[in-house]
TrEMBL record:
<protein>
    <submittedName>
        <fullName>Nitrilase-related carbon-nitrogen hydrolase</fullName>
    </submittedName>
</protein>
<dbReference type="InterPro" id="IPR036526">
    <property type="entry name" value="C-N_Hydrolase_sf"/>
</dbReference>
<keyword id="KW-0378">Hydrolase</keyword>
<dbReference type="GO" id="GO:0016787">
    <property type="term" value="F:hydrolase activity"/>
</dbReference>
<dbReference type="Pfam" id="PF00795">
    <property type="entry name" value="CN_hydrolase"/>
</dbReference>
<dbReference type="InterPro" id="IPR003010">
    <property type="entry name" value="C-N_Hydrolase"/>
</dbReference>
<feature type="domain" description="CN hydrolase">
    <location>
        <begin position="7"/>
        <end position="248"/>
    </location>
</feature>
Length: 269
């Protein structure tokens, strides 16, 4: 469990101009500056926020792990002493070959200017499978400076209760979902975001894209849910920053009152 009793979190719900990395980063950091000026310490951004999926120009949109997006986010995180959670299109050499590339949807957690950990999306959705390799491990990210553990999952994975349950059992303090969930799936998104919090008795920050993409419309609906499944803050369908203070100590009290995790029948499932 975290060394902190509470933390102020923020979701940066933004529209994304597909394939325009510079403008997307500029907008994201402007919104992030507003969030930290209001006291936010943990900032969450939509999935592949700096490029969108950019399938038609994926090789140029993709970055190595030390690329532009991560450098910019690290610089901001260091200057403002905050945590930032996001994902990028990652490219890397395949099987040590310098001529063949593979791509991943790489989730990143940055703490005070340093990459604290990464997670490669393990469940690509439909068209994503044509471009992205699937990640091969599910582990939370531990933030050593804050003694905080983040369970990061990406978009489609909110539909898989096994992912958030594993992240919970491995000691996550907060569940974070970053997404590009499109219209018309707003009711599904909201229901699953609340359910993942309730069944694991864990705070959940679910941050979605808003606006028009190259082949989809996005409804936003970013949401911050507490350990009981109560909604702390919820966004509409426009660009916005939502925030709330998460009481981390409430997790212990919630699990003492309703011992869901202790009462699991691991001999049966």
């Amino acid at each position: 469990m975290s060394g902190k009793s509470s933390i102020k979190v923020a979701c940066i719900q933004m529209s994304i101009i597909d394939c325009n990395k510079q403008l997307n980063i500029q907008k994201a950091l402007a919104m992030a500056k507003y969030a930290v000026s209001a006291g936010a310490e943990l900032l969450v951004f939509p999935e592949v926020f700096s490029t969108g999926f950019c399938y038609d120009n994926i090789e140029n949109a993709a970055e190595y792990e030390n690329g532009e997006t991560i450098r910019e986010m690290c610089a901001f995180s260091k200057a403002h002493e905050c945590v930032m959670v996001f994902s990028i299109i990652e490219k890397k050499e395949k099987n040590t070959s310098y001529t063949e590339l593979e791509y991943y949807n790489l989730g990143v957690c940055v703490e005070d200017g340093h990459v604290a950990g990464t997670y490669r999306k393990t469940h690509p959705f439909k068209r994503e499978k044509q471009y992205f390799s699937a990640g091969y491990s599910i582990y939370p990210v531990r933030l050593p400076r804050r003694k905080l553990t983040i369970g990061l999952q990406i978009c489609y994975e909110i539909r898989f209760p096994e992912v958030s349950r594993k992240l919970t059992l491995l000691g996550s303090d907060i569940l974070v979902t970053i997404a590009e969930f499109p219209i018309p799936r707003g009711h599904i998104w909201r229901s699953l975001a609340i359910a993942r919090a309730i069944e694991n008795q864990i705070p959940h920050i679910a941050c979605n894209r808003v606006g028009e993409g190259s082949d989809s419309l996005f409804f936003g609906g970013s949401i911050i849910v507490d350990q009981l499944g109560d909604i702390m803050e919820e966004a509409g369908d426009d660009e916005s920053v939502i925030s709330g203070t998460v009481d981390l100590e409430r997790t212990i009290k919630t699990r003492d009152e309703i011992p869901v995790l202790d009462d699991r029948r691991t001999d049966l499932y």
